[in-house]
Write a structure and sequence with these properties.
By secondary structure, this protein is of the alpha+beta class. 36% of the residues lie in helices and 16% in strands. A hairpin with a 2-residue loop joins strand 3 (33-36) and strand 4 (39-42). The mean pLDDT is 87.
Amino acid sequence: MRCVIARFPFDLTKNGVLESMKGIKPEQVTGESVIIGRRTYPIKQVGQVITRQDRRDFSAGEVLRAMTQLGFTCPGPPRTAAPSRALSPVQQASAMLGAPAA
């Protein structure tokens, strides 16, 4: 499949991407990702390996679009726990003092 990443045309195949990523250790996923084989890689790491370009030269969306068209699974960013509600100054002071003795 022919695709354009960072204004350069690339002829990518699913087998070619699998071969390129063979032996590459996945970095920690903090944003968009792609599942290649049994491993989950950050999308920018995959883009860097298959295009041999600096990560700043292309967007995650360009690589994400190409990987999706090749048939790879691209889950969304990892979910984080919902931030806990911040205590008001009065509630924080009350918690620091503790409950009154009975």
